[in-house]
Amino acid sequence: MVMWYVSKVLGKERVQMLKAIDDFVWGVPLIVLILAVGIFLTIRLRGLQITKLPLAIKHMVANEKNGEHGEVSSFGALCTALSATIGTGNIVGVATALVAGGPGALFWMWIAALLGTATKYSECLLAIKYRVVAKDGHIVGGPFYYIENGMGEKWKWLAKIFAFFGVGVGLLGIGTFTQINGITSAVNNFFDPQNTWTVELFDRTYSWTVVIAGIILTLCVALVIIGGIKRISTVAQVVVPFMALLYVVVVLIILFTHLSAIPGAIVEIVQSAFGLRAAAGGTLGSILIAMQMGIARGIFSNEAGLGSAPIAAAAAKTNEPVTQGLVSMLGTIIDTVIICTMTGLSIVITGAWDMGLEGVSVTTKAFQIGLPFPEQVASFVLMLCLVFFAFTTILGWNYYSEKCLEYLVGGRQKVVKGYRWLYIVCVFIGPFMTVSAVWKIADIFNGLMAIPNLIAIVALSGVVVAETRKYMEQVAQGERAGAKKKAKGMENAQESEVVSNE
Asked: Does the pLDDT value for residue 62 go beyond 50?
């Protein structure tokens, strides 16, 4: 009934109009803007995402100090952010990019990740710098607060625009409809591909696997999100490392069993990126397609610059903006450089990108060819990964959109709690949504979130540089003091040895 009404209201012409808007929003202008900001920040921060990578890893595994403000650990904040970014895009999005843009699209995903890491560092640093403590004592922060508190009250309208788009993305599609629909479709394709067991609902026929999977997932989501950020973070700290490890191990099996093919695949990726392979046609057009598909999918996957990750970062237990910025930037590396790369390599090695398949079927075929298991086992493993990836994305985007709403309504918790139940309802009806317009609207909101956020990051880039310089000077002083202390200790030890010998 819901979808029938939506289709009647929108009509085919309006759906086509939404598609045109979506193509424009996620087209060249936004991609160029995000890349330009990434290049700008990389230059201003002197390649911090590369030079300070060991320091970022050190902070990720370090324990928080007593007395630091926040609601979850730095690692918990990272996992909450990863729960939203590691999703179907890592499996389906990569496959879509490779089919449309060839193997070279993966190269441009790497470029997007390299530049996006500097953007992710900056926005998450600002989230800690300008976060606030609500009346009930919980921590709130994100682009809306560093726009308002960093750029000034006169820019509050820009913060509200970002928050409005954030609520729309979470409720209308990225966090609800698309993810639960993806989960139930994957479960149905595995357990009941012929739709043997069906039921009539809303004047349409659905497989019982879709209905049962939808109910189970809705209950699981409800049990988690009703508990707020602490429960979401707790679940994310368990599920995210598990799902990432499971997926990495499975893809590593493909790579290790095809080890000799990896060098050739890398050469193919680089050559295709610059139109040097016959398959790419050697034309400027083919290069641009590979760039657009790779960069767009990379940005969509790791969300660098979109403003979502800072909302999770703001809850971290730390008093130092730079340390959380360093920890959070690892999310882009984990999401794109590791997980998307492994997916892409497995698809290129097996040749699944060039078999006339689309979407998840491409990755499924790569798993079936690459894994030394029966096809049913390979399909089940991929289905399991899809379920976990999509489930955590639902949790992450609930938190993001909830905080956006909290900002819009002035922190009224009754409204926020009511929104949680509305979010759960949207998850429940997700498996029965079929009109593509819903997804297009969500995509448009997702892209439009980036514009206010990128404006703020550029405007406050001086603050990012100043905070970074100050912290790095403190680190250098600490290292020098530590070196002097160590040298003094060695000197005292040598003097004690001389005395004892005498």
From this structure: yes
Separation CA 331–CA 312 (nearest Å):
12
258-281 tens-digit pLDDT: 999 999 999 999 888 887 664 444
Q: Are 274 and 113 in contact (CB under 8 A)?
A: no
Q: Are 179 and 394 in contact (CB under 8 A)?
A: yes
Buried b (16+ CB within 10 A) or exposed e, 243-258: bbeebeebbebbbeeb
- Judge contact between 311 and 127, C-beta under 8 A: yes
For 73-83, the pLDDT digits (tens) are: 666 666 666 66
- Give the model's confidence band at 99: pLDDT under 50 very low, under 70 low, under 90 confident, else very high: confident
How are beta strands 139-140 and 204-207 bridged, if at all?
A: unpaired
Task: Name which of 393, 335, 343, 395 is nearest 370 in CA terms.
Answer: 343
Report the first-to-last Cα separation within the chain, whole angstroms.
96
Measured CA to CA, the distance from residue 364 to residue 357 in angstroms comes to: 10
pTM value?
0.82
Whether the Cβ atoms of residue 388 and residue 161 lie closer than 8 Å to each other: no
Q: Say how far apart CA 233 and CA 227 lie, in whole Å.
A: 10
Q: Where are the alpha helices (DSSP H) in 173-314?
A: 177-191, 208-225, 228-257, 262-273, 284-302, 309-313
**Two tokens, residue 326:** 């360093």
- At residue 283, the pLDDT reads 61
Mean pLDDT throughout 415-419? 88
Q: What is the mean pLDDT of residues 34-43?
A: 92
| Per-residue tokens: 292 | 């657009």
> How crowded is residue 376: how many other Cβ atoms within 10 Å of its Cβ?
10
444 closest CA partner among 17, 2, 5: 17
Return the residue matching tokens 């060991």: 54
CA distance linking residue 347 with residue 364, whole number of Å: 9
CB 333 within 8 A of CB 129: no
Instruction: From 120, 225, 235, 149, select the one nearest 407 (Cα to Cα).
Output: 149
* Confidence check: pLDDT of 6 > 50: no
